[in-house]
């Protein structure tokens, strides 16, 4: 039997305009023969099993947190595997778990995806969080690549072993690179005028930029607008708009257990 809501959709598929809301259930056996095929297609679509998702990353926000938030926004469950860094570098890195030898990876019914921004782009399309059209999707990808550059800049500076070079690299990142990119984000938001980076609704471009700024300035906390953003009015208003999205706010208030502090 098919429930009331699905039956209304089914009546459109079978072009039976005389069907009313009183027809709340139907047996496949009772349908005319010519309607069985679209009915079968409909049933397959609505009963298709959700893929099994397994995300593997270190116990950090880092490059996986935007993926976690994307799952939260979509309301989709996934296995969040927190990989012990020592075990990764001594055993797992060359075990074949990750084809690229890097994390994060996302397993989708056994198929392994690598590169965090490619994973985000895939999930956005799956969860209706991608912008409309190829041009807007390219704009979203561009913003994701900007964030990837910021992450790389911070990671390289933070991981520098020479103390003087590390201090210089971190100073350049915090005083020059990040403010410059915040100015870039400000210009895009001011030009769009719809409250989000692309179009009129939340997309993965908003998620990836927000996650980086929240992780860098607020260490993943749910509190209000970071001081470092307050000189950018459009960016500040956008940050608060995204932060207070119910599912994002809930995720920020309930971070993954086992996280260790990191630069972002």
Question: Which features does this protein show?
Answer:
globular, alpha+beta, four-stranded mixed β-sheet, 264 residues
Fold topology:
Layout: H1 4-13, H2 36-47, E1 53-57, H3 65-74, E2 79-82, H4 85-92, E3 105-108, E4 111-114, H5 116-126, H6 133-158, H7 163-192, H8 204-218, H9 233-243, H10 246-253
Parallel strand pairs: 1-2
Antiparallel strand pairs: 1-3, 3-4
Assess the beta-strand content as a share of residues: 5-15%
Cα distance spanning the termini: 50 Å
Shape: globular
Mean pLDDT figure:
85
GO biological process, one term: glutathione metabolic process
InterPro entries: Glutathione-S-Trfase_C-like, Glutathione-S-Trfase_C_sf, Glutathione_S-Trfase, Glutathione_S-Trfase_N, GST_C, GST_superfamily, Thioredoxin-like_sf
Protein name: Glutathione S-transferase
GO molecular function: glutathione transferase activity
């Amino acid at each position: 039997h098919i429930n009331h809501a699905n039956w209304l959709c089914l009546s459109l598929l079978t072009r039976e305009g005389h069907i009313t809301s009183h027809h709340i259930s139907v047996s496949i056996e009772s349908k005319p023969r010519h309607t069985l095929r679209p009915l079968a297609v409909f049933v397959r679509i609505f009963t298709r099993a959700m893929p099994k998702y397994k995300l593997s990353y270190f116990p950090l926000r880092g490059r996986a947190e935007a993926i976690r938030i994307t799952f939260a926004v979509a309301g989709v469950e996934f296995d969040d595997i927190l990989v012990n860094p020592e075990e990764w570098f001594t055993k797992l890195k060359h075990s074949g778990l990750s084809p690229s030898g890097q994390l994060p990876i996302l397993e989708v019914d056994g198929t392994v995806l690598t590169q965090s921004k490619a994973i985000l782009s895939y999930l956005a399309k799956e969860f209706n969080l991608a912008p409309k059209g190829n041009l807007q999707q390219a704009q979203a990808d561009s913003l994701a690549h900007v964030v990837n550059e910021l992450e790389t800049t911070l990671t390289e500076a933070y991981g520098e072993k020479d103390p003087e070079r590390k201090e210089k690299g971190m100073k350049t990142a915090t005083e020059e690179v990040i403010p410059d990119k915040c100015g870039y984000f400000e210009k895009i938001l001011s030009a769009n005028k719809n409250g989000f980076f692309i179009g009129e609704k939340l997309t993965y471009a908003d998620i990836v930029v927000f996650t980086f700024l929240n992780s860098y300035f607020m260490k993943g906390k749910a509190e209000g607008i970071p001081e470092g953003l307050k000189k950018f009015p459009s960016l500040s208003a956008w940050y608060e708009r995204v932060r207070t999205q119910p599912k994002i706010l809930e995720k920020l208030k309930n971070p993954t257990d086992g996280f260790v502090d990191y630069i972002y």
